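User: Here's a protein and a ligand (magnesium ion). What would the complex look like?
Assistant: Let me lay out the input and then the predicted complex.
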Amino acid sequence: MGQKLTIATELTNKDLATEVAAILSKIDGIETVDWKNGAGEKGVLTSKVHPHIIVLDDASQYGSLEERIYRLREAYPSVTIFVASQTQQPQQIVQAMKAGAAEFFVHPIKQKQVEKAIEDAHAQLAQDGQIGKGRAFSFVSAKGGGGATVLATNIAIALKTKRSVALCDMSCQSGDSTVLLDLEPRTDMADVASYFHRLDAALLKDCMTHHGSGIELLAAPNRPERSEEIRPEHVARIIELLKEAYDLVLIDCASMYVDENEVESYRASEKIFIVTELSLPSLRNAVRLKRLITELQIPEPRVEFVINRYHKGSSLSIESAEETLKKKVFWLFPNDYVDVMHSINRGTPVVQMHPHSQFSTNITAFVERLLDPTSSKDFRGIRGMFGKAV
Ligand SMILES: Nc1ncnc2c1ncn2[C@@H]1O[C@H](COP(=O)(O)OP(=O)(O)OP(=O)(O)O)[C@@H](O)[C@H]1O
Ligand SMILES: [Mg+2]
């Protein structure tokens, strides 16, 4: 099953809006969202949807068509833009195409023309790896209680503003994500395993638990003893299907050890983040865990260390930690006892409850780095004296 394309329409002209809606309603494999009042152009923050395609008309109240296209392309760098208009003005068409529009539809709009344009956009997105090939990331703590669940949950929600996100709770013996998200799943991974012989992406999606933020959770077994029903081949297939159905898959793994199910999560992950604190016992465990993972033929560059509960003035420096780890630390997440505890006790993740806290802005910056690996690698979440990256 291919991933659905999300198409946002920003059509102020009522007749055009009706015309385009009628055409889109006859096309399979897409979902549409109606953007009102220039929502898209006010930037990603005002709209939770990150569309693959935007259809806009040439209404002038939000600025010239050219400017609007530039603004949208800046806010959504990989988006494809279609323009719909009631009039055929060659000059305007040329300007729109120059600004980066992929298609210009003039009333009366032909169904076939729109279908072809969507097919082309779909093919291009698939080629660019933007759809149909979700990215997976695993989080595992070097020591129990290191923070993998807190981090994976908050990161999942922060990512949701940009893409579709699934959180997969692989910490089968101690699945805490339902507590952090205040959810009571009706189905969990053991149920999915029991449907294995007829499992496809649609059935798997039915087994996910929806969270108010928009992320979907595949919960760990409600009864820990049922985790024995889950086999490595189940995990491999489940993650493969999650990657088909969602843009991003975050996997919250059980701490410290690598069991045969987790191996499958690691194999399917682009990066495996080992969460450690800045203390010698935790760092030593992190090194041991990395060795266990790389012994499974998982390439070393895919394993990264992140430090959680970082606070300035720690007796151990990052440099000496890196000597122990023999690798540069990928990211530092700040210690924020009050906000994290408050959020756990309320069942509302920090990024939702305290979006402007240091912890939440740090998580947002981490998400940006994940989505754009070419971004500056100097900044790792915390600034030291005079605003310099530490
Ligand atoms: N950045 C942080 N700042 C302050 N406290 C934190 C932070 N991250 C995690 N914690 C605290 O650590 C506790 C354990 O976190 P979490 O459950 O995410 O760890 P874990 O590695 O998933 O543990 P487990 O081994 O149980 O799976 C949380 O209850 C929270 O109180
Ligand atoms: Mg956990």
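Summary: The CA atoms of residues 58 and 64 lie 8 Å apart.
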